[in-house]
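FYI - complex with S-adenosylmethionine, inputs then prediction.
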Amino acid sequence: MSGSLVCVGVGITLGAHISPISRSHIEQADKVYLLMSDGFVESWVSSMNSNCQSLQPFYDEGKSRHSTYREMTNELVSAAQSGLKVVAAFYGHPGVFACVAHKAISALDKLNIPAKMEAGISAEDCLYADLGIDPGKTGCIHYEASQFMLYQRAVDTAAHMILWQVGLAGDVSFSKFSTGEEYAQLLVDLLLKHYPTDHQVVLYEANTLPTEKVRKEQIRISALAKAKLNMQTTLVIPPSSKLIPNNKIRNELNKLDRTSFLTLVQ
Ligand SMILES: C[S@@+](CC[C@H](N)C(=O)[O-])C[C@H]1O[C@@H](n2cnc3c(N)ncnc32)[C@H](O)[C@@H]1O
């Protein structure tokens, strides 16, 4: 008996984003583990297979998320090791700002047990559609909000900057379900080293249920600490400066173009 693991994503909006291959994996699994954004989504996915188990009980306020993720990973690995055809279904994309699927697949790879990931529609994909942003226009950089605060990270004000888990910004304990105004203010202070105080940013929440409205609330960056920051809020910071031409490289490219033209006409 050889077990396996497939990690799938069901997308963000209930019923709208799941791919046929992910649905088929869920329907055919011996056991399905669920990590969903809300109870309705969990019930919907549970209707596809009678042997579903939620991973939510591994979370606990005050418990380090490092332990939570380790326990979730061990659960998936043990189930696949026991010979079951296991599916782990996550909301969004299973591998975007989500470590459990990556960790479980890597552990099973080492044990030579088949494990793979199917792509899903993440909050990032919804954001581009709902806010009309093309990441290719001026570039787009994504950071986890606390990591952005805790490390020296580059800021390119000519690109979009997207901060994930902004509702948990500054949680050094890695164990809270939300931080608060004082923590968010430290993030604002850091951002104000790069952006003007009246720069408009967007608090973005894609709709989980088809009947819900998308949140795309525009506020001044300096008002961020007092704004309502939920677990599912993503902060979108549009560019505040223009792209600066790299004249040195442009000159080099012009020289190359001239050389190839001369080679052509000789
Ligand atoms: C642990 S990450 C999971 C992301 C998920 N794997 C995905 O593919 O979108 C949680 C963060 O994703 C973002 N997020 C989750 N749901 C969202 C939603 N409905 N709208 C906007 N952002 C969301 C928020 O930044 C949130 O703090």
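Residues 247 and 255 are 12 Å apart (CA to CA). The chain has two domains: 4-117, 123-237.
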